[in-house]
Amino acid sequence: MDLLQALFLAFIQGITEFLPVSSSAHLILPAIILGWQDQGLAFDVAVHFGSLVAVIWYFRRDILALCNALMERIGSGQRTEDSILAVNLIIASLPVLPIGFLFRFQIEAYLRSINVIIFTTIVFAILLLAADRIGKRGLRDKDMDWKKALLIGASQCLALIPGTSRSGITMTTALLAGFTRKDASRISLLISIPTITAASGLKFADLILSETPIDWFILFAAASVAAISAYLCIRLFLNVIARIGFLPFAIYRIALGGLLLTLVTL
């Protein structure tokens, strides 16, 4: 992978990682149109690390407040809104971790195909649109209880199927559970932190064991581009989602799935 190719793919990864549009579907487009090869494990680790840095930096004050509240609860037993939210975010983060660890090789072998990505990109776009229409949108993130947290966390397991979109399916479930658009998005972004951390750590371990030659300059550049683009995307998305809703993203996903279907059948 040359530098320009790496930077282009890192930019795509950064702007699509936290939007409900499926980064997998976007990263497969250059392979189809330009004939590029798979970016490889080292690149995946780098851009996911960049995305992780972006979301942690954006929510740094929230994370600090939640961690302090959680430590205070552990130390004194005092329950606050922040400590309850912290516990429920942890609950929502748990289901995908063992499922992803146990089935990562089967998913890579049997589900990482263009046809699967096309199907999930379109189907989960329709579900997102339906959730945006029928969701009551009255709850805030601090209204989350353990049942809603577990439901959102369980839905995140579906994102292991390429094309589903981790952000998309968790936002869909949060909307169906009654959260506002912005708070559904915040919940999705916050639970992405332990998920991406675990996935990046696991991929990094696989990378070390594979003894793959690494071009550190390209990986650092890719991680930096992914971090910057992801941060700007999060900031813009959360500022406008309450006003524009999820309709544009659903339409875009359906159009993207249709484009991929057209390209692979030509």
Notes on the structure:
There is one protein chain. The chain is mainly alpha-helical and 266 residues long. It has one domain (3-15, 22-29, 40-265). The chain contains twelve helices and no strands.
Q: What's the gyration radius in Å?
A: 18 Å
Q: Sketch the topology as an H/E string, one letter per element.
A: HHHHHHHHHHHH
Kindly state the mean pLDDT as a whole number? 90
How large is the share of residues in beta strands? under 5%
The total tally of domains equals: 1
Helix/strand/pairing category? mainly alpha
The number of helices is: 12
- Strand tally: 0
Shape type: globular
C-alpha termini separation: 26 Å
Instruction: Outline the biggest β-sheet.
Output: none
How much helix, percentage-wise, in residues?
over 70%
In terms of per-residue confidence, which ranges show pLDDT below 50 for 5 or more consecutive residues? none
Q: How is the topology of this model organized?
A:
Elements: H1 3-16, H2 23-34, H3 41-58, H4 60-76, H5 81-93, H6 96-110, H7 114-134, H8 146-156, H9 166-176, H10 181-210, H11 216-244, H12 247-265
Task: Write out key terms for the chains shown.
single chain; 266 residues; mainly alpha; 12 helices; globular
